[in-house]
From TrEMBL:
Purpose: Involved in the regulation of glutamine synthetase GlnA, a key enzyme in the process to assimilate ammonia. When cellular nitrogen levels are high, the C-terminal adenylyl transferase (AT) inactivates GlnA by covalent transfer of an adenylyl group from ATP to specific tyrosine residue of GlnA, thus reducing its activity. Conversely, when nitrogen levels are low, the N-terminal adenylyl removase (AR) activates GlnA by removing the adenylyl group by phosphorolysis, increasing its activity.
Matches recorded under InterPro entries: GlnE, GlnE_rpt_dom, NT_sf, PII_UdlTrfase/GS_AdlTrfase
UniProt keyword annotations, A-Z: ATP-binding, Magnesium, Multifunctional enzyme, Nucleotide-binding, Nucleotidyltransferase, Transferase
Region: Adenylyl transferase, residue numbers: 510-1009
Protein name: Bifunctional glutamine synthetase adenylyltransferase/adenylyl-removing enzyme
Gene Ontology MF term list: [glutamate-ammonia-ligase] adenylyltransferase activity; [glutamine synthetase]-adenylyl-L-tyrosine phosphorylase activity; ATP binding; magnesium ion binding
Transferase in keyword set: yes
Gene name as annotated: glnE
Lineage, top ranks: Bacteria, Bacillati, Actinomycetota, Actinomycetes, Mycobacteriales
Gene3D superfamilies found in the cross-reference section: Beta Polymerase, domain 2, Nucleotidyltransferases domain 2
Transmembrane spans: none
Gene Ontology CC: cytosol
Residue span(s) of domain PII-uridylyltransferase/Glutamine-synthetase adenylyltransferase: 352-498, 880-1006
Length: 1009
């Protein structure tokens, strides 16, 4: 906005001045600011972030000052600098506007053109309480301590209010000088100057509060206590906000009741007069003692402290009180800080803390959160602190507290690039500037940007933050662009900060690229979660080696890929798997191009590779699945195939070959692709448990059908005669219920029926040959997950005939069926072969599994006896019955046996219980009132939880297993794959045991009734 060229210029209208209030013109007349002589004043007023607020505040001041208004009016007209500070302040902050109106004489504070130094701040606040030095007691060596306590001589009931006004005056002066550039051409205060001054002011404030505490607690004589107040967090790092909690820790010698009362009184006075004083970072947090001796602090950190507590100690700084004792505290604890990165749980703890911080922000606010959102202040601070902890053990130049100072030191030490450090510092300072302006508005602690459609608030923020139009966009547009640009830059540099120097150490990048030494690279990889950092470095060399275009593309991709891998349960295995996949697809031009151009593909691939040992081999052998990690027009491509299309594809591919081996190989190939798709979608939490089970079951059925058809077709070609019998495969167990998991075998019965005119003996012999060939073909050794066809549930078990005729089955079940065999038939369902024969078989067994009048009491007793035997004998030796997903307490067997017993009892009268699915049968049991909704919900939740955990075990370990591991890295991986909201495996295990324990109570009540 341009000033008028001379005093003869016309007075601008209120609209041109940015005044929107209808009474603005009248207000200007009342202030006598509507004439040519006041044009400079009006133009200054127009540059205030909120000109209407500034004008209304000046009216209120005029009313409060009365006859003294003339002095302020004269100063405003004459002093350009004062005018800039005043209008910028009251146009930015309604809180400071109210402060000025409440104490109108305080406008004289704004006449000062520079900031007071630390000593002046301390003297000003101590003057309020008329404090006098009081030496602390001598130290253990008899030497007088360097620091002094102060004792207040003014500490009446109004002392907090008087301190608050003086503190607010000093804060107001800083804010006015900080904001002045928005109105007049005043110098912009650097971010670090503002942070340091706020910290000096906080130090002086708590010194005054401690002086009042000394006067109140030690009324009868000198305080024989050495008390140090140690600043933590932003105050410790000398980068306070205008409105912040001040985090402190108290150290005392001795830590007696007097010391505790001093600390508590200091916090109370500080909270009433200045800001919240928070001592929650002390040992044991709010549950711990408020004051401890130095020896007690040291003992706690040696034995009990967690990683995040050492991370917090990075910023500790003696603040006030006995500074010598405070320095002793820092000297004693900092060596432990610099060895924290060697702790076995260091990486997991740091990552868990970062995720917990992110989870505090509601999803809908993450893009507006300056402190905790994506590309936020905390991203910068966490990254810098982690690098300090990693390399500070061997480099004392990194032993600094402030974020910007640490970035400078990291660049100087060669741990991050100088340009990256400068760019990250610039983004950090920009975000902190916005945070300061938002807090100044009402002097409230906030870190949330206005909503994107709140033009008025965004316009105010742009002006308060010195953002001007650029010729293409107005100030709001420029501010929005800058916010987006800086958030993206922080996110991009967050990855580059850790990984670009690593890759430059192993790859031939730019000649001037920063290269870490081998030792530094290994330290950094270890801190990023790699258990075997030397191996990881070897993988990086292999991926980026040579001068080929692929190596250069890998070097460009890897910083982001490695960051995503670092958030997975097993980055070591993930990096090895990525190397194997890359080498396996070396001749596939599309692979690296897809990773480069499709961010969703790259990120999902890293999550999969770093979480699962089941998937890498499948992806190497079915690489087109990786392309399905992209998002299509209607959602992830992983979800696009329909089960019937998959089945049709497998059967069609196998039917092209007369040779059964080639036909089964074709079916296996498509099965491999489908397993990779389903497992990927499951691991990425795109599918629910029932959907996973149905998909796995349908692909098993399709492969079984394809193998059976190929064998029969081959036999007919070889013999030149049609098959002598119809042949059907009956699914049993989870296959029959369409509830297979990744590690499930296919339980089946084989049934045949001689065709008219065929000899039964010959037909049965042919059928056995077919069944054996199918089992042999599907069970042949392979790198794929196994295809084991188990016919152990046939009559007489493994001692019985592999295949029987339909009539033989009918005769056996009518005369010899045992209760356990009847129970097993509840899940029998036609899955492959002759459909009509399979249905006839089901009609035959319906009379057995759904007997008229229900199951006999004797059979129920036998089923209970068998269940008790299974519980006591079949659980593997050493297995934990509380966490065995199949046979453990409240596990799959418990739920399924309970459901099946209810089917045996009630299916003769409730036709809907003629159902092979456990979940669907539970729905019927609830709908018909056989069990209450709460009991059914417990059984359903336990079955789903156990199935999800069992599937997650296979995905993580790459092999079938039913036993959940104990606390540790493996359990955390299973928890994450199972969809637990954080990576705390112990919480997942506790939840699993709580659910299954409650379900077991229902099982015992229903199964035993």
């Amino acid at each position: 906005m341009v000033r008028p060229s001379s005093a003869r210029s016309a007075v601008p209208g209120v609209g041109r001045l940015g005044l929107l209030e209808p009474t603005a013109a009248a207000s200007l007349r009342e202030l006598a600011w509507d004439n040519i002589d006041t044009v400079p004043v009006l133009w200054a007023l127009s540059r205030a972030p909120d000109a209407d607020l500034a004008l209304s505040t000046m009216l209120r001041l005029r009313e409060r000052l009365g006859t003294e208004w003339a002095a302020l009016d004269s100063a405003i007209r004459a002093d350009t600098s004062l005018r800039g500070r005043l209008f910028a302040l009251v146009g930015s902050s309604s809180a400071f506007a109210d402060h000025l109106v409440a104490d109108p004489s305080s406008w004289h504070v704004l006449e000062r053109k520079n900031l007071p130094d630390r000593d002046e701040l301390l003297a000003d606040l101590l003057d309020v309480v008329d404090a006098a030095p009081e030496p602390a007691p001598p130290g253990p060596d008899g030497r007088e301590p360097e620091a002094l306590l102060y004792r207040a001589r003014e500490f009446g009931p109004d002392i907090a209010e008087r301190l608050r006004r003086r503190y607010r005056d000093q804060l107001m002066l800083l804010a006015a000088l900080d904001l002045a550039a928005t109105v007049e051409n005043e110098p912009v205060l650097p971010y670090q100057v503002v942070g340091n001054h706020l910290t000096d002011l906080a130090d002086a404030a708590l010194t005054a509060a401690l002086a009042v505490a000394v006067a109140r607690v030690c009324k009868d004589g000198p305080c024989r206590v050495r008390l140090a107040v140690v600043a933590m967090g932003k105050c410790g790092a000398r980068e306070l906000n205008y409105v912040s909690d001040v985090d402190v820790v108290f150290v005392a010698e001795p830590a007696d009741p007097t010391a505790t009362r001093l600390a508590a009184e200091t916090m109370s006075i500080g909270g009433q007069a200045f800001f919240d004083v928070d001592a929650a970072l002390r040992p044991e947090g709010k549950a711990g003692a408020l004051v401890r001796t130095l020896e007690s602090h040291v003992a706690y950190y040696k034995r009990w402290a967690r990683t995040w507590e050492f991370q917090a100690l990075l910023k500790n700084r003696p603040m006030t009180g006995d500074l010598e004792l405070g320095r002793s505290y820092r000297d004693a604890l900092m060596p432990m800080v610099w060895t924290a990165s060697e702790r076995p749980d260091f990486v997991a703890d740091v990552q868990a803390m970062r995720r917990r911080v992110e989870d505090l922000v509601p999803e809908d606010l993450r893009e507006r959160e300056l402190k905790l959102g994506h590309g936020s202040l905390r991203d910068v601070e966490f990254a810098v602190q982690l690098l300090q902890l990693v390399h500070g053990r061997v480099d004392e130049s990194l032993h600094v507290q402030g974020t910007v100072e640490a970035l400078t030191a990291l660049a100087a030490g060669g741990y991050i690039g100088r340009d990256d450090a400068a760019n990250l510092a610039a983004s950090y300072e920009f975000l902190r500037l916005l945070e300061h302006r938002l807090q100044l508005q009402r002097l409230k602690r906030t870190h949330t940007l206005p909503a994107a459609d709140d033009d008025e608030s965004m316009r105010w923020l742009a002006r308060a933050a010195h953002v001007r139009p650029d010729g293409r966009q107005d100030a709001v547009g420029v501010l929005s662009s800058e916010i987006r640009r800086n958030a993206v830059r922080v996110r991009r540099l967050h990855a580059k900060l850790f990984y670009r120097p690593l890759l430059a150490s192993v790859a031939k990048l730019d000649s001037d690229a920063l290269r870490l030494s081998p030792d530094a690279a290994i330290r950094q990889l270890a801190a990023l979660g790699y258990v075997a950092p030397q191996n990881a470095l070897g993988h990086l060399r292999a991926l980026t080696g040579g001068v080929s275009r692929k190596g250069r593309i890998q070097a460009l991709l890897l910083p982001t890929l490695l960051e995503w891998l670092g958030d997975t349960p097993n980055p070591d295995a993930g990096l090895l798997a990525y190397r194997r996949v890359s080498e396996g697809l070396d001749d596939q031009i599309w692979f690296l191009r897809e990773l480069r151009d499709e961010g969703a593909i790259a990120q999902r691939l890293m999550i999969v590779l770093g979480s699962s040992e089941y998937l890498p081999d499948l992806l190497i052998n079915a690489p087109d699945t990786i392309r399905m990690y992209a998002d299509g027009p209607t959602g992830p491509l992983l979800l696009s195939p329909k089960a019937e299309d998959v089945t049709r594809g497998i059967l069609t591919a196998a039917a092209r070959y007369d040779d059964p081996k080639r036909a089964v190989a074709a079916a296996r190939s498509l099965r491999r692709h489908e397993l990779a798709r389903v497992a990927s979608a499951d691991l990425l939490h795109m599918l629910e448990v029932p959907e996973v089970c149905r998909a796995l079951s349908s692909v098993w059925v399709a492969v079984l059908e394809a193998a059976l058809a190929a064998v029969i077709r081959s036999d007919e070609v070889e013999t030149g005669a049609p098959a002598p019998a119809d042949f059907a495969v009956i699914g049993m167990g989870r296959l029959g219920g369409h509830e297979l998991g990744y590690g499930s075998d296919a339980d089946v019965l084989f049934v045949c029926d001689p065709r008219p005119g065929e000899d039964e003996t010959k037909a049965v012999k042919w059928s056995i040959s077919v069944a054996e060939r199918v089992q042999r073909l599907l069970g042949a050794p392979s790198t794929d997950p196994p295809l084991h066809v188990d016919a152990g549930l046939r009559p007489e078990g493994r001692n019985g005939a592999l295949v029987r005729t339909l009539a033989a089955y009918a005769a056996y079940y009518e005369q010899w069926a045992q209760p356990w065999e009847v129970q097993a038939l509840l899940r029998a369902h036609q899955v492959a072969g002759d459909q009509e024969l399979g249905v006839r078989f089901l009609h035959v067994i319906d009379k057995v599994r759904y007997p008229e009048g229900g199951v006999s009491a004797e059979a129920v007793r036998e089923i209970r006896r068998i269940k008790a035997r299974v519980d006591s004998e079949r659980l593997p030796r050493g297995a934990n019955p509380a966490t065995h997903t199949k046979l453990g307490r409240g596990g799959l067997a418990d739920i399924e046996w309970t459901v099946q017993l209810m089917q045996l009892r009630h299916a003769h009268r409730i036709h809907a219980l003629h159902n092979t699915s456990t979940l669907q049968s539970l729905d019927v049991i609830e709908a018909t009132g056989l069990l209450g909704a709460e009991d059914v919900a417990l059984l359903r939740e336990s079955w789903l939880t156990a199935t999800k955990a069992r599937n997650a075990l296979v995905l993580v370990r790459g092999k079938a297993t039913d036993q959940l591991p104990g606390p540790g890295r493996l359990l955390s991986a299973v928890a994450k794959v199972a969809g637990w909201p954080n990576d705390d495996g112990s919480e997942f295990l506790d939840n699993y045991m709580r659910i299954t324990r409650r379900a077991k109570a229902v099982v015992e009540r229903v199964f035993g009734a």
